[in-house]
Amino acid sequence: MMWNALAKYRDVGLLVVRLGFGLGFIYFHGWGKLVGGPERWEAVGGAMSNFGIGFGHTFFGFLAALAETLGALCIAAGLFFRPACAALAFTMFVATVNHIVSGRGSPGHAFKNFWLFVGLTLVDPGKYSLDALLSRKFGSSE
User: Fold this and answer.
1) How far is CA 109 from each of CA 2, 28, 92, 115, rounded to the nearest angstrom?
2) Please, how many CA atoms are within 13 Å of residue 48, restricted to the half-sphere of its CB?
3) For residue 29, what are the contacts with CB-CB under 8 A and spacing of at least 6?
4) Helix ranges (DSSP H) in 1-142
5) What is the distance between the alpha carbons of residues 120 and 97, in angstroms, rounded to a whole number?
6) Long-range pairs for 39-48 at CB < 8 Å and ≥24 separation?
7) Kindly report the CA angle at 34 between 76 and 78, in degrees rounded to 5?
8) What is the pLDDT of residue 140?
């Protein structure tokens, strides 16, 4: 069957997903937040109020911007893949709750991204990744 024949392209498929999603995430979500500075971080981090956290909003906003930029870059490169996916899943969970509670914007995009990052946390980045290269180089087994 044709679909079975495509199984040999699994790692190429993971590379395409990682590059497209990771770099797109930086461009459309992360970079603007990261370079937005403390005022933007404070606004983004304010979402933590939905969880009863009334302090450190600038810090939490910076962490979200870092996850959406550096984490997405790690996903694209396949480096620290699972921790980056987990960090972004958490960030998307907070964003989803914030959209629902505040009524601003649609939670749909963040909700879908949350589930994508949860799923990616459960798989590896494939053989065309820095994680795989380092594993081969240093003989670590998983």
Assistant:
1) 32, 12, 9, 10
2) 19
3) 68, 72
4) 2-5, 10-25, 31-35, 37-45, 57-66, 72-77, 81-102, 108-121, 130-138
5) 21
6) 40/65, 41/65, 47/94, 47/95, 47/97, 47/98, 48/94
7) 15
8) 59
Q: Which residue's structure tokens are 């937005």?
A: 36
Could you give phi then psi for residue 103, rounded to 5 degrees?
A: 75, 5
Mean pLDDT per block of 10 residues along the chain (142 residues) reads 84 96 96 96 96 97 97 97 97 97 94 96 95 87 52
pTM across the whole model:
0.90
Q: Other CB atoms closer than 10 Å to residue 66's CB: what's the count?
A: 16
Q: What distance in Å separates the CA atoms of residue 8 and residue 2, rounded to the nearest whole number? A: 11
d(CA 80, CA 30): 18
Q: What CA–CA distances, in Å, run from 108 to 1, 92, 97, 135?
A: 35, 10, 11, 36
The predicted pLDDT at position 5 comes to: 85
